[in-house]
Amino acid sequence: MQIVKQISIVINNSPGTLARICRALEEAGINLSGFAAWGEQDHGIVRVVCDRPLKALDLVEGAGMIAFSSEILEVRRENRPGELLEIAESLANDRVNIDYAYGSAPATGAGTMYLGVSDMARARRALKI
Fold this sequence. Notes:
This protein is α+β, with helices and mostly antiparallel strands. It has helices at about 15-25, 55-60, 85-95, 120-125, and strands at about 1-10, 30-40, 45-50, 65-80, 100-105, 110-115.
């Protein structure tokens, strides 16, 4: 487990917006390791974890989009029953809320979860990082 920077981008929820963001990141040679997106009627949020978060932030802000960075937890665990339960219970026992989460896991092997939490200091203590 480690703490990583995440870039959150407020977007217009319209065809091509995500493609434009991805094109700018690709042209700058920025590699994504985590990605989540959701939209409402006219707007949405894209969250990315990448190898050069400050460069990514500069790019999307330079394109006129509202963006900000924040610290989140990156958790790599084997994909087996109870792994998420262990994390959720550890955080709950220290009164840390999981505000949002995203990630992926292969059928076998390690997966990666990204967690936005209510209190990073408590989360670090609870998860011993």
